[in-house]
Amino acid sequence: MSEIPVLIAGGGVTGLSAAVFLARYGLPALLVERHSEPSTVPRARALNPRTMELYRAVGLEQTIERVRSPIADHTVVAHAETLAGPELLRLPNRLDTRPDSLSPCRWAAIDQNQLEPLLRAHAVQTGADVRYHHEVVAVDNRTDGIVAVVRDHHTGREERVRADYLIVADGAHSPVRRMLDVGQDGSDLLARKVNIYFDADLREPLRGRKIVGLTVRNPAVHGFLTSIDGAKRWRFAVSLRPGDDVADFTEERCVHLLRTAIGVDDLPIVIDHVSEAPWEISGQVAHLMRVGRAFIAGDAAHVMPPVGTFGVATAVQDVFNLAWKIALHHRGVAGAGLLATYETERLPVARHTTALTVERYGLVNGKPGDARDSAIRQRATMFGYTYPEGAFVPDGTPTPHPVEDPDHPTAAPGCRAPHITLEHNGTALSTTDLMGRDLVLVAGPDGDDWQRAATLAGARIEHHRIGDTLHDPTGDFTRRYGITDDGAVLIRPDGFIAWRSPATPDPGVLPAVVDQVLFR
């Protein structure tokens, strides 16, 4: 029987990101994916700045930025009765590539079928064993680890694998989640769609517009049109009506539906293909995200409507949160209680974000509501999601849940560390760049005594002091982080605040705090 520290079931963005993040800690993983290759279709088409902060932490920011979606410069999200007709509503552009004062990172316009091969290559280069056409077909979830049966679909051979931890990342209909007997709660089915891929020259009905997506609704057809290549290849996700079946979508019917949606009766259209099965849009969240040594992440844990790129963002945040906790537990510097905080922290975020995307999906499809207010709350969720409890030591500061105003952050334990530009050896860096392999203590300019406290805490923390290893050219650090010049803040590897002290305490306090964070 093979043995591996971490087994990852699923090789989409969630599973591949987990392998990349674990490799950062030197923790090898076996990833198995039932499909024969990475995704070949552009589903998610952008990464938000918070997601890019996490990829930046593993050195992938510039690599991702060099790959550009064919619709990277498209800005229009709207709905209308037909493409050729007038727009009924234009929504705020979700992809604003200008710098945001809240982050050192920008939106990255990259398609999922561009991102997955990039992640796969990096995961393999850094030590992961990635096997496509393999699948977890049985799981024995034991108190001391996982024993799984992995089937090779090339040969039919089955292999027993023992892993200390299992990450369940095998998608919305996750077979492994069902093996663990974990159900879901959520909204009713919002829509069933069939994708029609086609070629057409739409320059005339577009009238110079560069669309990210157009929701079309008229008495004959309802669907969502988006460009595949930024030119002549298109995808129309048509909503199924009661009684519709994929087999009903003949070439003749598809051409008729597309012409009706576009609003040009004699438009030349070449049908490329129609998806083999319908896909569903809903908002569902798993009852649990942890069962013993098995951890559920991404679409296996929370299914969201495809708006605002939150599906990918929440998935990547899941596995970054999980990777550092698994790594520290595996090294023996953290207890099992730290692993339990994965669900404690991430499940409330999943519930909030799923509810937000369900609401946003309604607005995109013409339901009454304030689209601009929804966009503001979307940005707040992106940067300001908070943890009600978990791997941190509260300091009594009231923290809004499930999000805080990211433009006025509290820097309280359980919240994201605010972005401030500092200097290190003459080079500018963000406080988000302090996300490390371990906890990071940053003391104010008069916090000399924190060095002794950090020494007492041992090798579990990295230590910096403003004015020594780091410089604060704006003088904003202590104010933004709510400490005095002799105070300090403890930052987790995922960039969340673990603890802070307004002033220097007894040096013996810090080791006790670190124990409290790592041994819940």
TrEMBL record:
<dbReference type="InterPro" id="IPR036188">
    <property type="entry name" value="FAD/NAD-bd_sf"/>
</dbReference>
<keyword id="KW-0285">Flavoprotein</keyword>
<dbReference type="Pfam" id="PF01494">
    <property type="entry name" value="FAD_binding_3"/>
</dbReference>
<keyword id="KW-0274">FAD</keyword>
<dbReference type="GO" id="GO:0071949">
    <property type="term" value="F:FAD binding"/>
</dbReference>
<dbReference type="InterPro" id="IPR050641">
    <property type="entry name" value="RIFMO-like"/>
</dbReference>
<dbReference type="GO" id="GO:0016709">
    <property type="term" value="F:oxidoreductase activity, acting on paired donors, with incorporation or reduction of molecular oxygen, NAD(P)H as one donor, and incorporation of one atom of oxygen"/>
</dbReference>
<protein>
    <submittedName>
        <fullName>2-polyprenyl-6-methoxyphenol hydroxylase</fullName>
    </submittedName>
</protein>
<dbReference type="InterPro" id="IPR002938">
    <property type="entry name" value="FAD-bd"/>
</dbReference>
<dbReference type="Pfam" id="PF21274">
    <property type="entry name" value="Rng_hyd_C"/>
</dbReference>
<feature type="domain" description="FAD-binding">
    <location>
        <begin position="4"/>
        <end position="354"/>
    </location>
</feature>
